[in-house]
Specification:
The structure holds 2 protein chains of 2 kinds. Chain A has 12 helices and 9 strands. Chain A is of the alpha/beta class. The longest helix of chain A is centred in the last third of the chain and has 19 residues, at 221-239. Chain A starts with a helix and ends with a strand. The longest helix of chain B has 20 residues, at 173-192. The chains are: A alpha/beta, B alpha/beta. Chains A and B meet through helix 5, helix 6, helix 7, helix 8 and helix 9 of A and strand 4, helix 5, helix 6, helix 7 and helix 8 of B. Bound molecules: zinc ion (ZN). Zinc ion binds next to loops of chain B.
Chain lengths: 263, 286
């Protein structure tokens, strides 16, 4: 039994959790990876391509943290560069062209903070994804499977349905970052984690996500089978939605409206 | 009057600084030290020059003063001034902080929205307020900006926006983060309606605002020397353990890397915005 929000954060960061490619390989068939943003480089922190959900072709995109020390370094610990987000957008536009639904798996402490990332427009890359995803004409389902670190996670989560695993977290800032800015004391991360309301239950009650996915048998066949069934059911509904773009707009439009005072 | 002149605004300003008449001082007049040229400049002189030092350094400016500088006289009509932050997460200290900031800044929120005429061109105008929690974006800021873009779509108006922000307002947690998606969707609708959006990035424009509506404009202008970036410079230094290049995240640096259309000093901003609005008013006949 997990008691505090900060324990959830630590669990969400746990190296032993399945990572992006585990989800792709176990939920889908015939995954073919497509590399590169066609502008600058291929970012190993984001993988994407086409695959089949049952027999249905879909575009899948996942932030990959890596399972071994060597792979984690290669994947930049799941912290994407701007070209990762641009690759994701390229694949999403391709999905739109061919009428394929898009499924994203998100697990990042945040977009990479580096000189090169700034020089190549990290903010602009995220902004463009937010803007373009809002009007893509195909269904988008995003699942937060570990850490949902701020704009770097949101850049793949402007979706029709956003789901979280029960021990995933989704936050505007890391609890350590929040504590050090507000209280000049990163040791107060526990208080920050509690205050930020970053657990799956919090996100659901704030209207930010639709569904919390159980972690029973995590990493086992049953676990992936369950997600496959849920994705299939949900896509059947979304594919028939003739107001998909309007509904996606409204989904985000209403968030925070009741959090402001209009007197 | 040619826009070509805007290509080297800093040089002009620096020259202006050197050739300007000696600074007149009344005894006891308050002065402010310029962090760039390190001279003490009489406050009255700064105010007369839109808070720009003779050396060209742009001091931070309050949102109301900026509206006064940019909008035609008495043309600004404020909207949504009733929309303000609540404390949706019961975040420790947030309510008190907002109250203190409200009293100190005289503003209710970190953005002021409305309609205005700029050089007789009607537009929607938003100006963010650095003196209100460093222009951080919470639910109220997101809601006001979104409403403004929706209003602009309905009335087919261009939007001019001055950004200044430390990023998303962490005291509203995920709700703040979602404002990035919400405002971006509203900007997209405005863009898809064929309407013009000009952003002017001022010091500092960072974090979630950079990663949303600041970088989504058709035309992105910036003030000289403004910090523009996603991650904070200190965070980057700590993460990479490398020293940062000269001028890192200054508007000149960001323009050099291709993310800003033009850097326009305050003295030329109204002229430039007027020209751009006129060029997009759809009335020209060849
Ligand atoms: Zn100076």
């Amino acid at each position: 039994m997990i008691d505090t929000a900060y324990e959830r954060v630590k669990l969400a960061r746990d190296n032993k959790r399945p990572t992006g490619l585990d989800y792709i390989k176990n939920i889908f068939k015939d995954f073919i990876e497509f590399h590169g943003d066609r502008r600058f480089a291929d970012d190993p922190a984001i993988v994407g391509g086409v695959a089949r959900l049952n027999n249905y072709p879909v575009t899948v995109i996942a932030i990959e943290k890596g399972n071994t020390a060597k792979e984690r370094a290669y994947r930049n610990f799941g912290a994407p560069q701007p070209e990762g987000y641009r690759k994701a957008l390229r694949l999403m536009k391709q999905a739109e062209k061919f009428g394929r639904p898009i499924i994203c798996f998100i697990d990042t402490s945040g977009a990479y903070c580096g000189v090169g990332a700034e020089e190549r427009g990290q903010g602009q890359a995220i902004a463009e994804n937010l803007m373009e995803m809002s009007t893509l004409s195909v269904p988008i389902i995003s699942i937060l499977v570990g850490e949902g670190g701020s704009g770097g996670a949101l850049a793949l989560a402007v979706a029709d349905r956003v789901w979280m695993l029960q021990n995933a977290v989704y936050s505007v800032i890391s609890p350590e970052g929040c504590a050090s800015i507000l209280w000049k004391d990163s040791a107060k991360a526990e208080t920050a984690a509690e205050s930020l309301k970053l657990t799956a239950e919090d996100a659901k009650s704030l209207g930010v996500i639709e569904r919390i996915l159980s972690e029973n048998e995590i990493g086992k066949k049953e676990f992936y089978d369950r997600i496959r069934v849920l994705l299939t059911e949900e896509l059947k509904i979304l594919i028939k939605d003739i107001d998909l773009i309007q509904n996606r707009y409204d989904r985000f439009r209403k968030i925070g409206v009741s959090a402001v005072n209009k007197d | 009057m040619a826009l070509i002149n805007f290509l080297k605004p800093r040089n002009q300003l620096e020259e202006g600084g050197r050739t300007a008449a000696p600074v007149q001082r009344d005894a006891g007049e308050p002065e402010k030290k310029c962090p760039n040229c390190r001279k003490d400049i009489p406050v009255s002189r700064l105010w007369a020059n839109n808070l720009v030092c003779p050396c060209g350094y742009h001091f931070r400016m309050k949102a109301r003063q900026r509206i006064h500088m940019i909008a035609d006289k008495n043309s600004f009509h404020e909207m949504y001034s009733n929309v303000k932050a609540d404390d949706p997460l019961n975040f420790p200290g947030y309510k008190d902080k907002v109250e203190t900031v409200r009293v100190a800044s005289g503003e209710e929120e970190a953005v002021i929205c409305g309609t205005a005429m700029i050089g007789r061109q009607k537009c929607c105008l938003f100006v963010m307020e650095s003196y209100f929690m460093m222009g951080s974006m919470g639910s109220a800021v997101g809601e006001k900006i979104t409403m403004l873009f929706e209003y602009a779509v309905y009335h087919r108006l261009p939007v001019v926006g001055f950004t200044v922000s430390g990023g998303a307002r962490m005291q509203e947690g995920l709700l703040s983060l979602m404002q990035m998606a919400k405002t971006s969707a509203a900007v997209k609708r405005h863009s898809d309606a064929g309407l013009l959006y000009i952003a002017v990035l001022t010091d500092p424009t960072t974090g979630g605002v950079t990663a949303s509506f600041a970088m989504e404009a058709d035309i992105i202008l910036a003030e000289p020397g403004a910090t523009v970036g996603f991650a904070g410079a200190r965070v980057i230094e700590q993460t990479t353990k490398k020293s940062l290049p000269d001028g890192f995240q200054k508007s000149e640096f960001v323009m050099k890397h291709g993310f800003i259309d033009s850097i326009i000093p305050r003295s030329n901003q109204k002229k430039c915005l007027t020209e751009l609005l006129k060029m997009h008013d759809g009335r020209a006949i060849i």
